[in-house]
Amino acid sequence: MKKVYAREDVCIGCRLCEIACIVEHSISKDIIRAFKQEEKRPARNVVEECGPVSFSVHCRHCDEPPCVQVCISGAIVKDPATGIVNHIPEKCVGCWSCVMACPYGVIKRDTDRGKVIKCDLCPDRDLPACVSACPNEALLYEEK
Amino acid sequence: MLHQPITKNYHDFIIERDPEKCIQCQVCVRQCSYGAHIYNEKDERVTEDEARCVGCHRCEALCPTEALTIRRNPSEFRENALWAPQFIKNIYKQADTGGVLLTGMGNPYPYPVYWDRMVLDASQVTNPSIDPLREPMELRTWLGSKPDAIEVEMKKGKPNLTTQFLPQLQINYPILFSAMSYGSINLNVHVGLARAAEELGILYNTGEGGLHQSLYKYGENTIVQCASGRFGVDSKYLNAGVAIEIKIGQGAKPGIGGHLPGEKIGKEISITRMIPEGSDAISPAPHHDIYSIEDLRQLIYALKEATDYEKPVFVKIAAVHNSAAIASGIARAGADVIAIDGFRGGTGAAPTMIRDNVGIPIELALASVDERLRQEGIRNRVSLLAAGGIRCSADVVKAIALGADAVYIGTAALIAVGCTVCQRCYTGKCPWGIATNDPYLAKRINPDIAHRRLANLVRAWGHEIQEMLGGMGLNAIESLRGNREKLRGVGLNEVELNILGIKHAGA
Q1: Cβ–Cβ < 8 Å for A11, A50
Q2: Which residue of A15, A101, B136, B325 pairs with A66 in a disulfide if CB–CB is 3.0 to 4.6 A?
Q3: Which domains are assigned to chain A?
């Protein structure tokens, strides 16, 4: 399946991917409204940074996802057809088990709603928002 | 702070932040390598220190909501035709520091730009123009020394060329990437230049900083430079490219050497330049083994000897008052190609006074060199490269009509990869990731993007050159070379027209 891959050598740590993610998953999908009027939710990726080294970490949509295994309410499911690890907010009870189980640290807590949020590879778009927002082509969306 | 030094208050730019649009995302804070954008954690607001802004527009380019506008500081000194603001500000700076003023890029002052005072011809009625999209249009160029005449013998009824040619370089466009050293720009930019040159079938120039190990594979498209510091020069290096350039001078700083401070000599640069890590890389003003044309001849032939007479030797000089006579000497000393760098040529660092006051315009230098070599009957012995301030394809066409075989582009190439000509290259903090070796900043150049954009630029110029040639009824760049009849001056005086060797428009 196609996944988002980060190129550490050209990631410039601008975090526009995080901003694009927040906007894409906002109600209005308008950057200024999303940040100024809507309740702010965290981005679904994390830019890790240490000095000159930076890269964006995204859900790997693992073949055997630890988050799916530990979810007590069946709120995280791997779609056998697409391979995408989906989160069903209606079922999520906010126990944070998946947050602890994820080896990449890319499941985030939305403390306002008491639920987790995670990457869904932007179902409404051809190219995930983070990938198209990267100014330096440091994110690739491809089959490897 | 109640009191601030005057240099801080009389800053050049102001940062306008539209509070309606700013989402406090701090992209500007992370992008500004000069610290002009500051995030105040207490107030959770981005603020600015405008005195630090250099006007590079990086923040503006990356702001996701277009909340930022960088403007000239509207604050004005009392108007004075003599004491223009830059003189006042420079004096303040020097009174503060006691130091030499430094700057980057090329001479920005409003000296005449002769490219803009020359116009091109086009065919109408009496001779047909040519459509390059329908008919062949040759941009291919051969650089190198041409024989005075060719000899042909008939063998079995077929002509056979018997003249031995000196080495020639074939390039698909009359455009080369000029010398920019690894050190002044970083490896990512070099990779972009090398790959673009390979794709286009042109050449890039290593500059004086040696050739990084990873770039030896682009040798077929590389000119290796040998400058006064001799950094990174050994026989492997000399044989790595297809040509060797002896750098005598640089348009941005004629008569001046170079100095890459020790702090910038990291591991990779130290290996490439073949000097100890942390040691200053000092390029002397002259080559200490060249004090005359005869000495230059010795170096030219030493380099030819070292490369088996297989590679043309270029000699690059800054355009100065006696360029024509100097070029004649260089041609007679055995150079295959002479590159002339005009006073608009860029640099990674130069004393401001030198950049802005030394050297002459490339248009005049080029015309006088071409004319002199023709008069002496030795124009065929060398190819001429014009450098320093080539901004567009029309400049290329005009340069070739004035007598150049091809042009070098440096600043234009950097602009293609993001440079906004803010002239702060000497700080090593280039926010566009070009003139810096700081690994955090250098990552901002993605070699793949740089490669693509550079190749696009040259291809686009190629199309435009073909259109202009076709309009003039020419079907090969060869037919334009030194064809000054295709140029006319606009608003030039008699002396200027004479030097350029062109008629005034209407004549």
Answers
A1: no
A2: A101
A3: 1-58+123-144 (3.30.70), 64-118 (3.30.70.20)
Chain A residues whose CB is inside 8 A of the B439 CB are 51-52
B20-49 average pLDDT score: 96
- CB contact set of A71 (below 8 Å; sequence gap of 6+): A97, A98
SS3 assignment, position A8? helix
Cα separation, B385 vs B202, in Å, equals 13
Same domain, B83 and B217: no
Question: What pLDDT sits at residue B1?
Answer: 53
Q: Which of B224, B222, B225 is nearest to B195 (CA)?
A: B222
Residues A63 and A3: their CA atoms lie apart, in Å, by 12
* CA-based nearest residue in chain B for residue A11: B443
With 0-12 / 13-18 / 19 or more C-beta atoms within 10 angstroms meaning exposed / middle / buried, residue B184 is buried
Please classify residue A80 by burial: count the beta carbons closer than 10 Å to its beta carbon, then call 0-12 exposed, 13-18 middle and 19+ buried.
Answer: exposed
What letter would DSSP give residue B179?
A: P
Query: Is B373 part of any domain?
Result: yes
- Both B204 and B56 in one domain: the answer is no
Tokens encoding B407 = 């042009």
Interface of A with B (CB under 8 A): 9-16, 19-20, 31-32, 35-36, 51-52, 54, 133, 135-138
> Which residue from A62, A12, A36, A96 is spatially nearest to B442, judged by alpha carbons?
A12
Domain count, chain B: 2
What does the pLDDT read at residue B198?
98
Could you list the beta-strand ranges (E) of B175-229. Answer: 175-177, 204-205, 222-226
Q: B378 is in which domain, residue-wise?
A: 141-482
Q: What is the pLDDT of residue A142?
A: 95
Considering the domain boundaries, does residue B65 fall inside one? yes
